[in-house]
Amino acid sequence: MIEFHLDTRSGLSPYQQLVRQVRQALRLGLLREGDQLPTVKDVVAQLAINPNTVLKAYRELEHEGLVAARPGVGTFVTATLADASLAAHGLLRQELRRWLAKARRAGLDEESIEALFMTTFRTAAEEDIA
Amino acid sequence: MTAVIQARGLGKRYGRRWALSDCTLAIPAGRVVGLVGPNGAGKTTLLHLTVGLLAPTSGSIEVLGGRPAGSPAQLAKVGFVAQDSPTYAGLSVADHLRLGARLNPGWDDALARDRIGRLGLDPARRAGKLSGGQRAQLALTVGIAKRPELLILDEPVAALDPLARREFLQGLMEAVAEHELSVVLSSHLVSDLERACDYLIVLVDSRVRVAGAVEELLASHHRLSGPRRDPARLPADQHVVAASHTDRQTTLIVRTDAPILDPAWTVSQLGLEDLVLAYMGKPTHTAHTGRNHRPTLEVQR
Prior knowledge:
The complex is a heterodimer of chains A (130) and B (301).
Chain A: H1 14-27, H2 40-47, H3 51-63, E1 67-70, E2 74-77, H4 85-105, H5 110-129
Antiparallel strand pairs in A: 1-2
Helix pairs in contact in A: 1-3
Chain B: E1 3-14, E2 17-28, E3 32-36, H1 43-51, E4 58-63, H2 72-77, E5 78-81, H3 93-103, H4 109-119, H5 132-145, E6 150-153, H6 162-179, E7 182-187, H7 190-193, E8 199-204, E9 207-213, H8 214-220, E10 221-227, E11 239-245, E12 249-255, E13 266-269, H9 272-280
Parallel strand pairs in B: 3-7, 3-8, 5-6, 6-7
Antiparallel strand pairs in B: 1-2, 1-4, 8-9, 10-12, 10-13, 11-12
């Protein structure tokens, strides 16, 4: 079982944050096939958020084929995202660390690094779409 | 979709002052509605009209298809927790539940006892000896155990500290999830309600400035900033909610369902709080007047 949390400064809507946290947990292997997600009532009682927010997040996860609702029982994980890509994480992280060290040596502070990463990330994403 | 509250041209006048004017609303069922506005805007008046504590001066209001407080059946369908979560100081927690059971035909005693138990409230304790947060929880328990279809709460968290506020909203949201009730709650701070409500009404100076589903409001409002220009020369489908200018820059809060295509604008999303403030007519930031861009530093000796 995972526990949700909300970050009011993230810029993401609460429902998007819930979806992302489930995906993240699936990627990291914290959630596996067959695991149950917290019930809507539990999430709502913990985070003091609107039940529809949780329902919307769960519906989106269902639409993506990651979870399935069993009426009267709960919502269960039906797929995993921790596929072969997990093995590649270690190497990519190492490379990223090396790159970060290089960026620091070049005199970039945290904000500049983040800005550079985000603009490059976005440009690359746009080029992929185009 | 059935409306829980349907108001048409609703107004209430006290002497020569209109506390609420020309209020037209259709609130769908199953929502948690945040009623937001500054103190004195008319929030309590609107809530009192909804529960039938006040009669309208003009227009009409229907609640769950009936006249507010028009019949015993109507009274049973609507729960109301007035401002400052009123309880009887001399009565014990158990007395409050007994009173609730006597006065409400649909009273759910198991629910009430369960909630009191989980809150750790001593049934023998007098309400006057409870903390503010506990009193609010007791009032909420009575409101929920009545098993209304619509629960109305007037400034329920205004007097609570942040922890009690969170606990109160947790309890309320849990009840919404469990019993599928519709809720209207008012506050002068939107931040109190931001996570809880999915429908918003902004009331300023006795008038509804904007009302709608939070998601739709957030999707249709944008902050545009760019070179200075006259807001009157925007496309017709862009409604300007707020505008501020410096000598070179213009920043607008705009409502539109169409995408913003003009490349001169930098378009950013608006949080719920900024959106509400825009409608309240308070600028979210002070515009610089040109020459002096640097903040003045005060030197203290």
